[in-house]
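Budget justification aside, the reviewers requested a transparent look at the raw inputs and outputs of the sequence design task funded under Objective 1. We therefore reproduce one unedited record. The lines immediately below are the structure tokens for a 437-residue chain.
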């Protein structure tokens, strides 16, 4: 009886998994495609009006104005995109898409591991390529993303994936290229539920917490310089930070924390540094530029955290950092981060309203993100020889009113834009349109 019950449970789980699986991944490109007549937003600051982009075998073969770019129409599929816009696939920075399916269901969450120091944790092996949440990104042009672990002082390594795959092995573009650190906060708030003052006050344990992190790094460095007769997986996972093959991503928000975090990384001999969140990064923008530190800026659509900050403080941050010459990308952190990842282009659009040009705003979620993640040789811009990961929008993709994606490609593969949400929309649209008065 128990064996029968187990079989029934397995069958039910299999049926459920089949029902919720995403669209079947697109097949490999077999014929050249030319998109003709569109406005081409290259992602590097340049725009080509009335242009042509040709791609085959998953890569861009030619790109330029229609008047000076010849094509052999008989040998390829032609997409007439006059009046439309073509963009590189948007890239999610510091995301957790594919690590959690339903927040309220613990069994569907692979977001973090127990413990304080987990440099050996690899987020990529927990990535669910069949996530319904992941597939819902594509209709907004969000085609790539960073898969980042959470929790602890050292969370583990991130990888970069494309959002149309059978499994994590198919999805991954760059594996274990970044180590993620949660820098101690130099301030803390009182626990109001215990009657404490909820205002900000200096963190009494800040120096102790920084020392613990410093000691861990020093121990890891010593271990990796030794003969390694005894393996220590966490320490050995950090070797890439010291030889330059991994980038360090440090979550820090306050001015002191950002400065201390950068100085700490430099003292450890780490040169590839990115600040994640960076709520007060604009206050130390020149310092970040001088130290060649990039920033994955926290979600633009958030309220200011401090009483003396302007109401539009978070909207203006990107402009201040870009003007200082800092390499900046946008990330969708905060509550409902995974769901909000689809709004990435609209965060970029908000920065246009607060000072950036549209070309600069586009770079925040294409070229800049690709550079920080180390995938810019193949992704992030529309250039000959790079991956044909792009999409066609009916209008301005940074405007929620006009970002209507009609075609999308990853590595030249023609993607399905159907999702669970679009299927429900069609289903109930048909139901109510057929109802009699």
């Amino acid at each position: 009886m128990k064996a029968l019950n187990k079989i029934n449970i397995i069958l039910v789980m299999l049926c459920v998994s089949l029902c919720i699986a995403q669209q079947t991944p697109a097949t490999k490109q077999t014929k050249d495609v030319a998109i003709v007549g569109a406005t081409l937003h290259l992602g590097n600051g340049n725009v080509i009006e009335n242009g042509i982009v040709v791609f085959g075998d998953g890569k861009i073969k030619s790109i330029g104005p229609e008047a000076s770019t010849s094509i052999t129409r008989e040998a390829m599929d032609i997409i007439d995109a006059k009046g439309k816009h073509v963009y590189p696939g948007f890239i999610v920075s510091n995301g957790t898409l594919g690590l959690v399916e339903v927040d309220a269901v613990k069994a569907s969450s692979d977001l973090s591991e127990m413990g304080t120091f987990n440099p050996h944790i690899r987020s990529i092996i927990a990535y669910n390529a069949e996530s319904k949440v992941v597939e819902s990104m594509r209709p907004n042009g969000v085609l790539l993303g960073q898969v980042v672990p959470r929790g602890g002082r050292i969370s583990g390594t991130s990888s970069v994936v494309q959002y149309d795959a059978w499994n994590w092995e198919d999805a991954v573009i760059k594996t274990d290229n970044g180590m993620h650190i949660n820098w101690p906060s130099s301030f803390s708030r009182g626990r109001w539920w215990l009657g404490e003052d909820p205002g900000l006050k200096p963190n009494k344990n800040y120096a102790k917490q920084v020392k613990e992190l410093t000691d861990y790094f020093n121990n890891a460095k010593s271990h990796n310089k030794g003969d390694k007769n005894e393996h220590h997986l966490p320490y050995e996972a950090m070797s890439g930070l010291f030889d330059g093959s991994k980038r360090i991503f440090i979550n820090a928000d306050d001015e002191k924390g950002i400065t201390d975090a950068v100085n700490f990384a430099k003292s450890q001999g780490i040169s590839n540094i990115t600040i994640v969140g960076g709520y007060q990064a604009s206050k130390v923008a020149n310092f970040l530029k001088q130290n060649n530190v990039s920033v994955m800026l926290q979600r633009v659509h958030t309220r200011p955290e401090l009483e003396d900050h302007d109401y539009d403080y978070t909207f203006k941050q990107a402009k201040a950092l870009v003007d200082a010459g800092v390499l900046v990308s946008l990330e969708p952190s905060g509550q409902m981060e995974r769901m909000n990842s689809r709004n990435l282009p609209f965060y970029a659009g908000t920065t246009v309203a607060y000072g950036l040009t549209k070309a600069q705003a586009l770079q925040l979620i294409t070229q800049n993100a690709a550079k920080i993640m180390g995938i810019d040789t193949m992704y992030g811009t529309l250039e000959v020889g790079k991956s044909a990961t792009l999409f066609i929008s009916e209008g301005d993709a940074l405007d929620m009113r006009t970002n209507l994606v009609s075609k999308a490609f990853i590595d030249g593969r023609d993607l399905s834009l159907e999702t669970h949400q679009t299927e429900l929309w069609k289903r109930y649209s048909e139901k109510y349109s057929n109802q009699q008065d």
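Residues 15 and 136 are 21 Å apart (CA to CA). The chain has 14 helices and 18 strands. Computational costs for records of this kind are itemized in the attached budget.
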